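Example record

The entry below shows one chain as it appears in the dataset: sequence first, then structure tokens.
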Amino acid sequence: MTLKKKIEFYRKFAALINSGISIESSLENLLKLKPDKNTVKMITILYHGLKRGISLNDIMQKNSDYFTDFESEIIGIGEKSGNLDQNQLFLAEYFESVNRFKTKLISGFMLPFFYLHGFVVVVFFLDLFFMPGYSTGQFIIDMVKAIIVIDVLPYTVYRIVKSKKVNFAVGNFISGVPVIGSVLLKISIYKLIIGWKCLYSAGIHMASSIETAAKVSGNIRLKNECLGIAAATRQGKTLQESIAHSKVFPPMVISMLSTGEQSGRMDQVFDKIAEYYKDEIEQSLALFVKIIPIIFYVLSAFYMASRIIGSYHGSITDMNRL
């Protein structure tokens, strides 16, 4: 299911709930709007689950193909607190941000992606016509190898990393990768802040809200850090004391959280921090999008230079033998 469809679903669902319509009736009305096949399947799963007396949170957890852990937790918080419509809007806003980040990233990769494929084709065609002994069969083999390396392999790695076990296993490593790790960590903190706000606004204790929000952040490093902060808070320390030596949150965010705790305006602080991280993510993605083409061009230039030098070296060697 596309992000745009999820955004549309949660916004319409929230509007119906906010108007005083029951959850089941809201889902029935959504079906009457004749959405696409995937949305119909998702709504049907929720509707039949509710008919059997199962909560939305439990239904979502049992249908991970349609719903993420983050969604199920946020919806579960909304069910318990009576703020279901507000939390659905939080999810819609979150997915809008993710969709914007994704669009920027894809648009930045398009030119280097096509350039890389064109470069590979040109190089192998030049070899086919100008390199002695380079056959059509070898050309086909090299093209298949290139497709595996630049298309199949990256997609396979992406699918593997998407799995939960591997995601948590390599979380620390990925977080340490320059630019990429920074962007992923900021996205995880953004998710954490949204979940934390939903929980805290529902009246859940500070330590419990941190623990639950940490579980849906999707980052092992951030999760462990937040669990430590929650444990310190349970021991009677203030949030300011618990988070003072954090290695994940920057000093400005620590200061904002401390100020929010003292002033009793945590909701406003959460909004400001979420906005701060949205801006940070967009700036990091903009930098990433600028760096990637340069890396492609430099590597291509080095490769062509090595081919030219190797060709001249081979020619000179043959001449010396004569």
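Notes for this example: The mean pLDDT is 82. Residues 3-92 form a domain with the Receptor-associated Protein fold (CATH 1.20.81.30).
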